[in-house]
Design goal:
- The protein is an alpha+beta fold.
- It contains six helices and 16 strands.
- Strands 1, 2, 5, 6, 7, 8, 9, 10 and 16 form a nine-stranded mixed beta sheet that branches. A three-stranded mixed beta sheet has the order 11-12-13.
- The radius of gyration is 19 Å and the shape is globular.
Length: 298
């Protein structure tokens, strides 16, 4: 089954998973003057122009989440005899692994575990996402941009697959990940450093190349910070989270490891870092997720 057929197959007869329109090959890369003027090089953010990546920090909370089937039975989507698992769509149908919660400080691309001294304190929120993997069935990642234990997913349009917007950057394109992007695959072939370890291959660039044209060039992955931080959590077993984050996340890049996938569901919350008044503001983190400081994963 080809990629597009698989996407349609996954979504068929499942009304609460919202898929977005597939791109038309004729307008994937519109490079008219309006788009050029909207590129990241021209975006304006309100912070010191002297700010660099090493100045920036935030706090990231990972909380494992698993379904509570006593509250809502297992949800299975079917299509042509094929079956796939779907997360609950009710807020009371989850169990939060409070003992498994871990808090980290991300600074300048590196990350340290501050669970012991920092957990259970109040912080200013920046963003949150709930993410589940369907890797046993469809290889999709499903997400909503809120805590699924606090809001009913069914009331907010259902679970969404990850999607992308294409952002021109110099002679290449950023792929900006979200749950509301215009495209379902990357703007250009993804790096082997993070495909398929962070993003399943179903999201990789998959257009038949025109022999008369060069392949588009990737500037890397940017986008919603809770989603970007969530991706490494699914690259290994739950008990290996700290090891993976502190050893393989580096400034503007991800270093591939050899551990097996294993995580199922997670709430990831990003907070402003109270110890970094100037380098951890909403404006700075907005610029970070929009690629102002380069790719999150090159």
């Amino acid at each position: 089954m080809n990629l597009i057929a698989l996407r349609l197959h996954v979504a068929s007869h499942l009304e609460d998973i919202a898929l977005f329109a597939l791109p038309r090959e004729s307008d994937q890369y519109d490079t008219d003057e309006d788009e050029k003027n909207d590129s990241l090089d021209n975006k304006k953010f309100h912070f010191s122009p002297r700010t660099v990546l090493s100045d920036i920090s935030c706090l990231v909370l990972y909380e494992p989440l698993r379904p509570n089937y006593d509250k809502q039975p297992i949800r299975i989507g079917t299509d042509s005899g094929n079956r796939f698992w779907v997360p609950p769509n009710r807020k009371d149908a989850y169990l939060r692994d409070k003992a498994g919660a871990r808090l980290y400080r991300w600074k300048g691309g590196g990350i340290t575990d501050i669970t012991i001294e920092g957990l259970n304190k109040k912080y200013s929120p920046y963003g949150v996402a709930t993410i589940f993997t369907q890797w046993r069935d469809t290889n999709h990642l499903l997400a909503v941009m809120f805590d699924a234990e606090k809001k009913d997913v069914a009331e907010y349009g259902g679970w969404k697959v990850l999607s992308f917007d294409y952002i021109p950057h110099q002679q290449a394109y950023f792929s900006s990940v979200s749950v509301a992007g215009d495209q379902q695959i990357l703007a250009a072939p993804g790096s082997h450093a993070w495909i398929p370890q962070l993003l399943p291959t179903i999201y990789d660039y998959d257009y038949d190349p025109d022999p008369k044209l060069p392949l588009p060039v990737s500037a890397g992955l940017i986008g919603n910070l809770p989603l970007l931080f969530a991706l490494p959590a699914f690259s290994a077993q739950p008990h290996q989270l700290s090891y993976v984050l502190t050893n393989f996340m580096h400034p503007n890049t991800w270093h591939r490891h050899q551990l097996p996938h294993g995580q199922r569901g997670m709430v990831v919350s990003v907070f402003l870092d109270p110890s970094n008044k100037h380098g951890s503001t909403k404006a700075v983190l907005d610029a970070l997720q929009n690629g102002y400081f380069g790719p999150f994963y090159a």
